[in-house]
Amino acid sequence: MAIASLLRIGEPGDGLLKRLVDGIGPVAALTIITAVGRGETTAHDAVQGLADTGTEAAEHSQLPAAIDRWAVRACEADAVGSDLDKIARIGGRLIIPDDDEWPRMLDDLGPAAPLGLWVRGAASLSAALTRSVAVVGARAASNYGTKCASDLAWDLAARGITVVSGGAFGIDAAAHRAAIARESPTVAFMAGGVDRFYPAANAELFEQILATGAIVSETAPGMTPMRHRFLLRNRLIAASSQVSVIVEAGWRSGALNTARHALELSRQVAAFPGPVYSASSTGAHKLLREHEAELVTCSDDVIALMDDGTPALFDTAVLSAAAGSGERPPSLDPREGLDEREKICLNALTVSKPLDVGTIASRAGLTIADALNSLTALDLAGLAARRDTGWVKLRKPGG
């Protein structure tokens, strides 16, 4: 119930709220925010109390202002009523990190990981995303782009791979429809509440998704899609997929934002080539030209990126076998050994653009000294490297 309230109080990807919840738990965080909203205490006094208990989030200079901002929404949330009741009435559910259905790959988002997810649909989210590929691209897609997306999604679905997208017009809708036609689950991440389909013209498509797949959102029921929520929604699409495929994207397409999130998470990014004179493919070509995406033309190319000889990020077979033998499963990811500050620092890095230590420290909310120590640890783990103009994240250990 506390997480349900916090999802309405905070915006998607609110790293400061996530740090507060990680530090003291959702119930205590909600209690403090609500007390400030009711005038029972001030944000300054609340932060002072958190500092006295050693809560890490209290060290952030913006926490008092953030608590005041959340407190206003806490009062509004009381007036709206129970989101849990609303979601139950339409057959949905709220899943949180302690649930079996929680997709563990989203934890890779670190401070930007969601506190919980509102879900509708027949599919179990964790099962559906065990092997998944994001297929995204332009809303104003050409016939060429729509055909590429449909063929790719159909072939992936035939191989038991879940197609993930954003439910929008164009490439997204073509990918979802092909997976549905193949009677395979498909997952749509929304920028607004799961109780209000957007775009409304795709309502029939969303109803079909519910039958075998899932519609997912971080935002509370009834909340409207907004531009910044679309961009933050894209990080969930990227994190939930082993490969993000950009089928067709213009120079400023939102699909490029999904690719950027995938690169920051060290996920594979692929792109379909388009006609050289097509404005709809300039963004995809930019990714290919700058070596940020692998060129693909069919499902075999995408699956090769998933199964490139390294253990799949979300493959549970190794873990299950080890559990059955009583042995400790081997570590599939060097990030498992990182401490919290090192994980935050890793998430602040990008694959393509070297960042100086000051920028990294600012983005991660760390001191310069802590950032330097974390970068050294990441370098030793093969997760980051120093370049002439700064630090970059490595796509693969030692890469």
Automatic annotation (TrEMBL):
NCBIfam families: dprA. Pfam families: DNA_processg_A. This is DNA-processing protein DprA. It comes from the Bacteria. Belongs to the DprA/Smf family. SUPFAM superfamilies: MCP/YpsA-like. Residues 94-305 form the Smf/DprA SLOG domain. InterPro entries: DprA (IPR003488), DrpA_SLOG (IPR057666), WH-like_DNA-bd_sf (IPR036388).
